[in-house]
């Protein structure tokens, strides 16, 4: 069965506090998958939306390293909004979930840790195709 937006959750990132500044560490004990790709979004213009797709098999862990932004997730039946603004917490998104990122604050940096390398065939980029895909997967 495919994931539901109600299954998604924020995960804490271990933080080492120090008067000189904090250190957060993301290893495979934080995310439930082997890390195969890491990228980040920055200098996102005001009013822009990123994402707008789902993945068939890839999982992602999304962290607001700096600033804030919202992640809207949809499973074809329901949707939820997560506001990310803390670099010691991240949102785990499982396969079969549509995601859109919006409301980027000035200077925000969005880190994405992925379970797979880039594969265009894993993307579902049309929302109608996504709802049809999830309908077949749920039946």
UniProtKB/TrEMBL annotation:
Ranges of residues in domain Sugar 3,4-ketoisomerase QdtA cupin: 8-134
Coiled-coil positions: none
Any Pfam family the entry gives: FdtA
SUPFAM superfamilies: RmlC-like cupins (SSF51182)
InterPro entries recorded: QdtA_cupin_dom (IPR008894), RmlC-like_jellyroll (IPR014710), RmlC_Cupin_sf (IPR011051)
Regions that span the bilayer: none
Protein name as catalogued: FdtA/QdtA family cupin domain-containing protein
Origin species: Algibacter miyuki
